[in-house]
Amino acid sequence: MEYREAKDMQVVVLMGGLGTRLKEYTKECPKPLVEVEGRPFFDYSLKLLMHHGFKKFLFLIGYRAEMIEEYYGDGSALGIYITYCYDGKELLGTGGAVKRAYDHLEDDFLLMYGDSFMDIDYEETLYRYFEGKSRGMRALMTILKNGNRFDRSNVIMDGTGIKLYDKMNMTPEMDYIDYGVCVYEKALFSDEGLNGFLNDENSTAMETGVKFDIAVIQNKLSIDKKIEAHIVTKRFYEIGSPSALNEFREYVKHRFNESHPAVFLDRDGVLNEIVYNEDAEQMDSPQKVEQFKPFPEAAGAIKKFKEKGYYVFLATNQPGAAKGKCKLKTLYDINTIFLEQLAEQGTDIDGVFMCAHYPSMCENTKEEFLIKKCDCRKPKPGLLLKPKDIYNIDYDESYMVGDSFTDIVAGQAAGVKTIFIGDLKCDACKKLCDIEPTHIVRNVTEAAEIIPSINI
Ligand SMILES: [Mg+2]
After folding, report:
1. Ligand 1 centroid vs 70 CA: distance in angstroms?
2. Which residue of 45, 125, 334, 384 could cross-link 414, Cys pair, CB 3.0 to 4.6 Å?
3. pLDDT tens-place string over residues 21-54
């Protein structure tokens, strides 16, 4: 399978819009540069993208283009590479803007909007795109179960993927919405590629291949079953209107300006059952979607941590794919199912930090890019330190909660308090004699009860 990491992947950002609904802010300044808590809006998105490892950017600029170019320059001050493509005088629509930049595109590229803050697992996005590509997919769309919360839903999913995306003809069956991050094959935007999307209905839109909405391409790809889905569960922020801008301003204050503690939760044995692996004849993490069984108390405990004022992050070692027991896709699918179940129960996890690595090749290893001596596999503290640059975390008041001694060692190395879940007579506890967790409890509900409430 062809696979590219974030550092080698081009990010194309649509920044040309006029920002009409924000006119009191955008009279003098393009939307990505609208000030939020002392910084231009897009700085916050760029921080996220750089955190995920992206380095190569192509900004598609139009309205007040020169201000964006002057502010970000070639990116070298930030250690990244930024190039620009001007939309020109005429408004081209999203598809037209990408087509116009054709000569600047790399063979595969991630496309997003410069007026949205989209906090997703971009590593998962890239993996799912390339995994899909190995099965003939030509694009990927991130989607969110919406229930018409933010806008009208426009995607129907079936058991295997996206059944239909249609932004023009919405039906009651649609319960997902396109989230705003996509990945495309460049060839879709060649003259020949675009010809393939012509039909009677959209011929005017596509005729010249100059001015068109990218939704035309997404719709056709969904009908042809050529667009992969990445289901995300966290809401997005955008600055399309003054009220949306204010909402984002409040969010920025909470997330970047004020410091809050976090609870890092190990997953298996803490939030869900561990399972008996017949091949290895031992207890193991779930390696199949149907093996994943969350504890009934998991959602309630997560809710409680959040009510007490903590971020909740997952910090989980999942070496199953690296060892060839399953595909990385399955590990991502399990997390997705869990997050969607939590959303249905009215709660969520702020971030999933999963180490899918393993230090050495195993007999059945297929996804070799997972083999590495990483800094994130517990007992190393990498998973806990990872959110440091995109959240303002008070580590002194934070906790690691786990059922293995490696969780406790990782927590201590990261400088947080630790809660061990388990039976004092177990093997892991014997190892714990020397390293003493802050608390020992029987289950995650007790962990949620034992930690103090943070008064803000
Ligand atoms: Mg565990």
Report:
1. 49
2. 384
3. 778 788 888 999 999 999 999 999 999 999 999 9
In a domain, 252, yes or no: no
State whether 366 and 435 are in the same domain: yes
Enzyme catalytic residues = 266, 268
Domains identified in the chain, total number:
2
Confidence of residue 152 (pLDDT cuts 50, 70, 90): confident
107 is a domain residue: yes
Looking at the structure, tell me whether residues 278 and 174 fall in a common domain.
no
Residue type for 402, please?
Answer: G
- Can you give the CATH number for the domain in which 363 is found? 3.40.50.1000
| Distance from the alpha carbon of residue 294 to the mean position of ligand 1, in angstroms | 13
Domain boundary among 188, 211, 244: 244
Residue 160 CA to ligand 1 center (angstroms) comes to 30
Identify the residue with better confidence: 179 or 424: 179
**CATH number of the domain to which 140 belongs:** 3.90.550.10
The amino acid at residue 221 is L
Please give the distance, rounded to the nearest whole angstrom, from the Cα atom of residue 450 to the centre of ligand 1: 19
259 vs 395: CA distance, rounded Å:
9
The residue among 244, 268, 296 that closes a domain is: 244
275 with 184, same domain: the answer is no
383: CA distance to ligand 1 center in Å? 14
For residue 260, what are the β-bridge partners?
Answer: 393
| Alpha-carbon dihedral angle through residues 214, 219, 225, 227, given to the nearest 10 degrees | 30
Q: Enumerate residues with CB within 5 Å of ligand 1 (an ion).
A: 266, 268-269, 403-404
Q: How far does residue 145's CA lie from ligand 1's centre (Å)? A: 29
Are 78 and 116 members of one domain?
yes
* C-alpha 440 to ligand 1 mean position (Å): 14
